[in-house]
């Protein structure tokens, strides 16, 4: 892959030079996520550690309404799979 310096790309774009977009795409690198996932900071809890119930009683607060729930079956802090109708001790509004 050809190494293109950022300054050269900017200069081409500012002067209207050919290949501006091609050079820009060649030098494009994936941007880091604005908000790193919770997984990058600490390991997820197991179902047992979290007191997870796969099918919670209707009066319990359900995973599908929890701030940590990731549709369709993941959780930011508890290992999956997670049922939207489950619940655990870490529930957060
Ligand atoms: S209640 Fe919240 S923290 Fe607990 S498993 Fe469900 S989504 Fe994750």
Describe what you observe in this structure.
This protein has 93 residues and is mostly helical. The protein folds into two domains: 1-29, no CATH class; 40-93, no CATH class. Helices cover 23% and strands 4% of the residues. The protein contains three helices and two strands. It has helices spanning 6-14, 20-27, 47-50, and strands spanning 69-70, 74-75. Strands 1-2 form a two-stranded antiparallel sheet. Helix 1 (6-14) runs antiparallel to helix 2 (20-27). The longest helix is centred in the N-terminal third of the chain and has 9 residues, at 6-14. It is globular. The model is unreliable at 1-28 and 30-34 (pLDDT under 50). Bound molecules: iron/sulfur cluster.
Uncertain residue ranges: 1-28, 30-34
What spatial form do the alpha-carbon principal axes imply?
globular
Number of helices: 3
Which structural class should the secondary elements be placed in?
Answer: mainly alpha
Notable traits:
single chain, 93 residues, mainly alpha, 2 domains, two-stranded antiparallel sheet, globular, disordered N terminus, binds iron/sulfur cluster
